[in-house]
Amino acid sequence: MRKLMLLFILLFTYGCMQQQPSTQSTEPAPEPVPLPENDFLIIAHRGASAYTTGNTLAAYEMAVQMGADYIEIDLQMTKDGKLVALHDSVVTLHDVQQAVADVTFDEIQLHSPGPEFNENPLAYTLPNFRDLRIVDLSEILDHFGDSVNYYIEMKSPEEYPGIEEELLRQLAEHQLLNREGAMPKVIVQSFDAESLKDIHAMEPSIPLTQLYKFRREAKLSKKELKELKQYASGVGVNVNAVTSKFIESMHKENLLVHPYTVNDEKTMRHLIKIGVNGIFTDRPDVASWVRNSPNRNY
Q1: 205 — alpha (psi -120 to 50), left (phi > 0) or beta?
Q2: How many other CB atoms are there within 10 angstroms of residue 137's CB atom?
Q3: CA distance 261 to 264
Q4: Mind listing the domains of the chain with CATH numbers?
Q5: 130 exposed, middle or buried (CB, 10 Å; 0-12, 13-18, 19+)?
C-alpha cells in the first residue's frame, strides 16, 4: 500500500512538472520601426560641414538654418564615459595621437577640431573657427532639445563597451524616445550590425539604418536581406555604388535608401530621379534648393 501511495505521488508530481509553462519567451521579436517616408530627406552630414568644422554646435546650427531635416552626429566614447561628437577614433594631444577611449573628456578639450578645416577647398569658415571645440552628446541635446531631429552614427561601438546603453539613457533623459509625429526624433545608424541589433533589442522604437560601403555596384543577397530586415528599416550606401536597380530591390523589401555623401547639385537631382529617400550631405543649403526647385529631377 505504501509503495502504491509513493508511486501515485511520483506520478502526480511528474504530471504537474509537465504542465508547467515554459519560461522561454515565445513572443516574436518586434518589427523594425519604419524610417520616415518623406519626399526626400536632407541629412546634414556632421552638420553643415562644408562651411564650418563638422560635429560642432556651429555646424549644427547652420544646418538647421539651411533646412536640414536631420543633423547627423558621429559618436565616440571617452575614457570617463562621455559620448563625444567626433568622427575619428583618435585625437592628437601634445603632438601625440591617442585613442579617444584612452583620454578623458577634459583632456580631449585640448584637441582643436578647427585648424584642419583650412584644408577644405569648399569652405568658408566662421571667423572664430579656432575657438570651436569638441562637444559631448548631452550638450547637443541640451542645446537643441526636441526642436531638431537626430541621425546618430555609432562610429566604433566595439571599442566602447556600454555605449549603446549610455546613448539610450541620454535619449530617454531628454524625452526623445517614443515620440508621436510624422518623423521620428532619432534614427541610429552604424556599420556595426551587432551594435544595431543590441539597440533594437533594448529599444525597438528607434528606426535603424545599416551602413554599407561597396567597392562596386551595391547589392545584397537574399540571406543578407533576411537578416537585415530583422532589425533595420533602411540602408546607408556610398553614393558611387548606388543604382536604380539597387534602390528598386530595397524598396521591394520595404527598406529605404539614404546614400552618402552627396554635395553637388547634379548628383542630387539624379538620385531624386532614381528614387532615393534622402541623402547625407555637407551642403544642406544646396540640397534644400534642389528639393524645392520646380524641375528638380532634371
Answers
A1: alpha
A2: 21
A3: 10
A4: 32-292 (3.20.20.190)
A5: middle
Helix axes 284-292, 265-274, angle to 10 degrees: 50
Q: How are beta strands 234-238 and 186-190 bridged, if at all?
A: unpaired
Catalytic residue among 45, 174, 200, 258: 45
Give the closest residue to 174 by CA, choosing from 139, 209, 133. 139
Does residue 251 have an active-site annotation? Answer: no
Assess whether 94 carries a catalytic annotation.
no
| pLDDT reported for residue 94 | 84
Q: What is the pTM of this model?
A: 0.87
Distance CA 96, CA 94 (A): 5
Q: Which three cell numbers stand for residue 143?
A: 542645446
For the chain, 298 residues long, the average pLDDT of each consecutive 10-residue run is 49 48 56 86 96 91 95 98 95 90 92 59 50 89 97 97 98 95 94 98 98 97 98 98 98 97 97 97 96 76
Phi, psi of 32 (to 5 degrees): -60, 140
